[in-house]
Amino acid sequence: MLMLKITRSSFQIRIQVTLLVQIFGTFTIALIIPVTIYALLKIISYSKQACGDDLLGGHLW
Length: 61
Fold this sequence. Notes:
By secondary structure, the chain is an all-alpha fold.
């Protein structure tokens, strides 16, 4: 009876830990993805300015 209780509680703890890990992972991904997209967009806009799209446009026309 005692043994069953111990295994049961450890099983519950294991489930709680996995749930916490899943929740933490989901939140981390949910935070990382928008930040990365934002950073990529900023890098792209900066690289466009650095390449001088305006300057090229000025030269072409």
